[in-house]
Task: structure prediction
Amino acid sequence: MKMLRRLSYWLRHRSVEADLSEEIAFHEAMKQRELVTSGIAAASASHVRSRAMGNVTRAREDVRAVWIWPWLESVWQDLNYGARMLRKHPSFTIVATIALAAGIGLNASLFTVVNALIFRPWEVADSRRMVTLESLDCCKRAGGQPHGFSLDEVAYFAKHARTIKGIYSFRHDGESGKVALGNGEQRLESAWVSWEYFRVLGLSMHLGRSFRADEDQNRVPSAEVVISYSVWQRQFGGDISVVGSAIRLDGQSFTVIGVTPKTFTGTFGTPVELWIPLSAVPLIRPDDNWVKNVLRQPAACCTSAAARLAEGAEYSQAQVELNSLSRNFRAASGAPFKGIFVGSFTPLAGPPGSRNDVIHLFALLSAGASAVLLLACANVGNLLLARMAARQREIAVRLSLGASRFRIVRQLLTEGLTLAALGALGGLTIAFWLPDIIVRIAMRDKVVGLRPGAAVLGYTLALSVLTCVIFGLPPALHATRPDRTAGVRMPLRSVFLSVQIGLCVVLLVAAGLLLRGVDSVVGENRGFAVQQVTAVSFEFPTSALAAARTKPFVTQLSAMLPDVAGRGAVGLSSGVPLKSSAKSDVRLSSESEDRSQDILIENVSAGYFDVLRIPRVAGRGFEHDDAGREVILTNETLANLYGGSQSLVGSTVLVGGAPRRVVGVVKDFRASSLERVEPTVYQLFSGQAATNVLVQNQVPGAAQAVAALARRIEPSIVVTIVPLSNYLDQRLGPPRILAQVSGALGILALLLATIGVFGVFAFSVQQRTQEIGVRMALGAQAQDVVRLVLRSCARSIAIGLSIGFAIAFAASRVLRAYLFGLSPLDPITYVCVALILVAAGMAAAYWPARRATRISPAAALRVE
Result:
């Protein structure tokens, strides 16, 4: 009943307040009449009545306390008062709201992305029952994927596990897994899945059906495919007769059996357009190592797997059971066992330590965004200090009238909370459009839901409360100290200012190091011509072509290439620089040494080094009559491991157990790694090995001419033309993104810090108006006043720089992986940051100092 009474008050509080006022007025009138009737004069009766009735306002509050919660009303009064104060100072409110919205919006946006990638499951039926299975045994054997299982092991789990009611195997290779549709002009993203895939996901087809168990038999592969809704609309115009029709994929005929729902784009991070049963993969990838060693040998490792938990089963129960089953299964075959991790069914799910580099990238970005938020809080804190100094008399009056310090601090914090709420609203507005931009830049076509949900809303609200405490509590406590007087200086301003400068230093140093690290890779001489070379790559779509036509094709192509692309402007290779290289073991034997060394093996033609403009440092290069001879070249790094270039030339080494004679040494160049040069051996290519042609861009139309020649020789071949600079851009993707975002955060931090310096010293000059007037009245010159203000600014900047450089040095070690050999103590970066901050800080302090020189001494002396 008490609760209902208090709720009813809020529904009709105006009429209740009117009734209360009327009742109090009635009692006052009755008391007045009683006193007059007793013979007291009317003038005296009012005074006697007031004394007799006591504190009417207190009585009114006691009565209202029966109807409402007094603390709730006081909070409402505080909010109302705080809103009026913010409305009264619009410039302060706008600046503080923008600063907080930028900091909160950045953090909320990054949390939106991380929540979608790590915590939010894929949108399938009862997604919380779906789990990913990861083997902690890193089994890259037989061309398989790490953290996977053999097909036999997956089948063993399906037969014996009780905590799961469905399990499927899959493989998704992204760009390398694309297949050519029709005549090969379009390549579609494909996923290779076992027949249980759609059944375990609980997905119903928009048209047709999904795979059946009898259609996923390795011995009798069924050439069937499920297509996405977008492909159905784009390629087939939404024709319902597509189900049952035949399409050609990499030259092979496949029957379309189903179309997925419109909203389903797969569970692999990038939109999938075709789903092919595992048994049919050998039809289009017969020479793929994974196909040879995993699909054709079900006991070999590895394939990825996911499962659906049985009703009532938990993650931990499934993990215990599957670990026991895997231990038993692998014990029979003697395979190593290190455990199984059962993870959440999310875009970046995986075992501890095996997450995608994207997580590390967003962790660094989140740290930068948090620094910006702290800087914004320090900025707003300084603005609040200035506001509270101007309200010092108001606060002193309240304290003298009996208000407790807690009550005033609560009032000031409520104003700060109102300000934080405005910042949170602005931050949520930013969080509705910024995550899409972040993912589009950082992860290209990752498929995640990027609209802020309940989790993001809760995070933003918690963040706004935290920011209110950070920027609102210290000024409130500082302003209500019992020993405060209007003339006492506030050292807290300098603390806030030093924090702003220190955080700005950290962000600017990080941005500078990352930008210089990326620039050192792009702008330096990497040892070969990146910008001047294009790679033309070939892929054979069918087994007959791959097995029987590769060598004749390469032989015929290499003979005709000089006429098409120009002599000295073309070279063949097994790998593409900056894209891929194959690691092997080589045993080098000489009179002084006999040891093994992990190296990179590249199969190249004689013109390979001329195209890339790589000079020799010893011996000779490949010659045309070297065909059939067992000769190799090495790079300087490998030669230096075995006595130097001159001593290695002419010696015989064992490459994979086969003897090879070293005829020359070429200059080092970083083709496989951006950070270091790998020891490398170059062999003269054989027909089966060389499927890439490197063409110099200086020959107009050379790459297109090579592609046309390849299609004339073999019409069904798939040709890809990619400049080497594109591969460099792909390798530099995360570092470049981190550098660009860090640069943007650094600029934002510099802007906030500059505004903070300006605000602090503008207020400082205002507070010291009388002192400056006295100095000028006693003969101080304008330059003396400017020097006085700038000296104080320089002291704050020096403290902030010292703190910031110490933190930046410690934090920069985390960025080593993105610096590409650049030292975390790069002097150019630190000097440039120091100069930028000193220049910005002095410029921000100069204008208040200059304005102080225009103060009239007479006017200054009249200032209270």
